[in-house]
């Protein structure tokens, strides 16, 4: 592979225009197609096979026209009267009706004539329900409780809820212009005396719109790190340009995919952007850094100032520079391919869990990473070839950071010498520190994104909180029990439904239960269950579990069956499923990490400590994330929430690949020194010296890119940005730069032990580019013989 990559890199450098044109045509073409055919992303997180999803599907069969609660094109408008008034006051009611008349006139709603103010709706509901319930002999107290549970008007008459359904198949199909026609009217009335906010499937999609602020902040910080690393403004810009092109192609491809599937979740593009931008910059950094080192070697001096290097480059022949690029791509590029492959494996492995929306998110991120690898191997060399001898021009004034090739000790070498003196102390320090940080992870709670997890101040969150205050928290977490009495004689079914209602009412955590509707032949009933607590309260999950625990007893007693569905049960089931597969996935990734690194390093101990170190950095990341985002430690987060259900498993998949990146780029130099005759200790020190600077720069860039996404309003992206930034920090600076070298020093020669029988059967993966040694010698000799060729 190293020889193939050498030819690819040198060819792209010399014949730059076809490579540049290819990627730019791809970028322009896919952007154009996405602009023409892309559709809105989905906000659904449903998982086939869950009890709640199966019940929902059965309900849609028994009640034709019933929408999927998680994707229906519905929304709610929450209205609050001015202080000191109620919604029944004539002036207030007139304002509400004027607003609704404007909304009806937009023509974007189904059955706009059903859109009435909460006061009239409540009166109509009471007039319809009360006589019917009285005829059934329902006590007045229960009638009042049933009305209160479904009334669109709060008991104090100050707050009302108006439900609306857009004229579309699903919330995803509602075009932005139609949604904005309604929200602009609602926002205009919110500026007056009324308080008007909105939430639900349709309006939630508008609240999660993203901006490019995070990407720009990440790029800015990355630029500073690259400028310091290379000492040149032009060289620093190369990784940024290649990363932006790669991410642009990836994100536009994801947008285009929405034209062919509705499985692209609203969080997918940002997640792909986050990981694609980080690895794209890092992979380019590794190659440009190695290219710089190869050019320094070609100049015949390891101690050149940037200005002197630039002067030497002006007279360096094209073929010499192309050879240096070939060597860079053949060596660092090999590591990039292998590191990128580990990221792809970890992400694609998420499909084993068989959760559709998670699979789509993972595959989208994986494709973006694959594009980043291809861009680094082809577009980047061509871009550097276009600049030719000007690559390290525009020198940054100020003192130069020593290169690993210099005779002077680098900061990396000074650090690893400290570890070598006291390896036990540094090993214990790293393990104990991460272990203590991991402790809060034992309290980790998971929940799916709802309006209640939206950022404070957004319309969905304000509507959610207003509803909870006015109607009780359980109004935000309704559940539907689908009671199937088809096996029960027709005359006994009313009794069975009454028994179901009574059983649900006697369940801890249930505020009210009532029959919502039945089929025409009375064989199936929907029973609306209103819990006491909201959708993200752990006690609501306990209530759901208690309701389901009595299902078998109910079936034995009555011959009827029931299942529980609704948005809250579906999201709760998704959280449970993700929690169930978390540990198996961790084990899969750890075993995978071991075997991947076994191939790279041909050692038993090196991959073992690398995998264990990865596990330690992950649990420490969970601990820090739980402490800050769930428990509100240090007051950094003003709205502590449970962690998003799929955050842990996505985090593991992403961090695994990144951790292996640093392991490969840092430890391959150690193995290279050991195989060339250095003692194990000296090989560790020398390898660390060569790899520490570029890994430090890469880690700082990744931390900056990920941390910048904390500026997003979307809870998942904000938390994921923090978690990834912390994970990279822990893994790069504590595990890879403290625990790993300390363990390597303690193991000494044993670190590279591999049974002979295993050594024979393992394929040889040339990550260090050993196959290029002879080619490099021959090519260098040939270039010296043709030294008369001028630079181009």
TrEMBL record:
Transmembrane segments: 20-38, 216-236, 243-261, 267-288, 324-353, 359-385, 424-442, 582-601, 608-629, 649-670, 691-710, 722-747
Pfam families per the UniProt record, alphabetical: MMPL
Residue ranges of domain SSD in the record: 216-386
Name assigned to this protein: RND superfamily drug exporter
Transmembrane helix listed as a keyword: yes
Location of this chain's protein in the cell: Cell membrane
Family to which this protein belongs: Belongs to the resistance-nodulation-cell division (RND) (TC 2.A.6) family. MmpL subfamily.
Entry keyword annotation includes Transmembrane: yes
Membrane topology, record value: Multi-pass membrane protein
Upper lineage: Bacteria, Bacillati, Actinomycetota, Actinomycetes, Mycobacteriales
Key words, A-Z: Cell membrane, Membrane, Transmembrane, Transmembrane helix
The organism of origin for this protein: Corynebacterium deserti GIMN1.010
Main location: membrane
Coiled-coil portions: none
One of the record's GO cellular component terms: plasma membrane
